[in-house]
Amino acid sequence: MYKCLYIFKPDHNMRAPFLSLLTLVLLLSACTGNRKLSNTGINAYQYAVQKNIQCRNGAVVSAHPLASEAGLSILRKGGNAIDAAIATQLALAVVYPGAGNIGGGGFLVGYLASGKTLAIDYREKAPGAAHRDMYLDANGNANTNLSQDGHLAAGVPGTVAGLFTSAKYGKLPFKDLIQPAIDLAEKGFLITAGEANGLNHSRESFVKLNTISPAFVKDQPWKEGDTLIQTDLANTLKRIRDNGQKGFYEGETAKLIVEEMQRGKGIISYDDLKDYEAKEREIVSFPYKGYTILTMPLPSSGGILLPQMMKMIEDRNVKAMGFQTAASVQLMTEIERRSYADRAKFLGDADFYKVPIQTLTSDAYAKQRMQDYDPNKAGTSTAIQAGQIPESEETTHLSVYDKEGNAVAVTTTLNGSYGSKTVVGRAGFLLNNEMDDFSVKPGVPNMYGAVGADANAILPGKRMLSSMTPTIVLKDQKPYIIAGTPGGTTITTSVFQTLINLLEFDMSVSDAVNRPKFHHQWLPDEIFVERNFPVAVREELQKMGYKIRERGQIGRTEVIRIQADGAIEAVGDHRGDDHAAGF
Ligand code: DON
Q: Is 413 annotated as contributing to ligand binding?
C-alpha cells in the first residue's frame, strides 16, 4: 500500500534557521520495499524532496529528486559535473516528462577547472519542409494551435546530439550515465502530486494528439504515489545506450519518429534527423563589478538580454534603492522593457540572420538606451521601441558542480508542458512544440506573449529564438554562482533578478531563489508579479502609472553557490518538486 508522509526537517542552511524549519520534505514510500536502481543506491519507490544542501564534494540541483540523486550517484562514482549533468537530464526525461526530454532541445553552459568554457547548443531546428507561412490559413491568419499542439508543432529534436557532444568532456562511459534513466523507465517510479496533476490536466490533449495511446493515459485519474512505467521509452534509451547518437537519429528510433509523422501529418523526415548536429558556440562573457558572467549566445536571447540588462543597471546603485522597493522594481522594469523591445525586433538565429550583436551588447548602447529613463514616471511601450541601430511553463534547469571545480548549467525544454503532447508511438517519448518559439507571423504573440519579426521567421534548418539562459558567474576566475530557470520569456528576467539578489542585495541563496519575482517584456505593457509580491509596492507602482498583472509562479530557479573556501550551497526552488543533492 502506498503511503505519503509530509514531515518538517531542518535544512542545512544555518544562516536561515527560521526558513530552514519550514523546509518541506515529501517522503514517498511503498510497501513494495527497496527497489534500488542498479549501482546507484537510489530507491525510486521511496524518496524525499530536499530543498537545500551544504556540502564540499559536489552538488546537483534539478526539478526532481530522482534526477538530482541520479546525477549525484554519478559524481560519487567519480564522474565529473558534465557526466552528472548528462545523467540528470536523461533521468529527467523519464521522471519529469513535462519538461525533461529526449524529444526536445537545450543549452549547456560550462566552465571547466582547466579554464575551458563550453556553450553547447542543442536547440531544435525547423524541419527541411518547414516554411515561413506554414502556420497561416488561406486568409493569412496565424493558426497557433498548429504551432503549439501535435505533430506539426515539433522541431527536429536536439537533446540526444547535445548529450553526446557534452560527453566529450565527461569521464565515465555513456552507458553508465544512461543506466539510471533506463532503470527508472523500465522498473517505474512513484510520481509526485505535481506530476499527477500535470498528467491529469493534459489527459484530453494526450488522447486527442496521439495516434497510439501513450503510457501517460490510463482509465483512472493519476494520483500521487502511482507507479509510472515507460517500457517503450526504456527500449529507446537502450537503443541510444547501444548505438550512441545513431540510436536516436537513425535506425529504429528514426523510423518510429518518421512513421509517427506520417500518421499525424507531421513533416520531420529521415534526413532532418540524420543531419541534426549540436553546435559548440563561443560563450558570451562579460564583466560585472569585478565578476565575470558567462552565458549562452544566440539562439538564446539571454546571451544578448542578460548583458544588456546587467550593463543598464551596473552604475545605478540599485543596492541603495533596496530589494523590491518601488524604485528598484521600476528601474528593473524599465531596463527589461528596453531589452525586450530589442528582442522582438532584432533577435533570431544568427546563423540565418544578421543580428547586430556587438552594438546591442555594447556599453555605449546600454547607456544610450537608458538616457530617457525617468524615475518619476512610468515608461510606455509605445514611446519606447527597439533601439535605432545603424547596422543593417515547460522547461527545466539543472546546475551541477564537482569537486574538481567544474561547473555546469543546463536548461532544456519541450517548450510547453509535455511539449506538443504527441508521444512517438512505440518509442515512448514526447515531441517538443518548439516551432511556436518562431515568430509565426510578425506581431502575432507566441504562447508566452512574445512577438517577433523577420529575424525570427521560420526557415528550413533554422533554430527558433529561445529565452533559456543558463549562466555561471565567476569570482576570481573560479565558479561562484551556477544558475538558471524555466519560465518562457520570464527566464531572462528571473536570471537577472536572481543575480541582482545575490550580487547587489547580498541575499542568502534560498532568498534569492524563493522571494517573489516580477517580469516585464515590453509587450504586453504590464508588470507581471507573483501572488506574494508585496501589495504596498504594487500600489506605489500603480500610482506611478504601471499596470500590474498577477500571475502564477515565475520560474523554478536552481542555484549553486561556491564560496572561496570550497563550501558549496545548492538550493532547489520551492515552487516545485525541485531537489538539491550533494555530498
Ligand atoms: O526556449 C524558450 O524560450 C522556451 N521554449 C522555454 C519554455 C519554457 O521555459 C516553459 N517553461 N515554463
A: yes
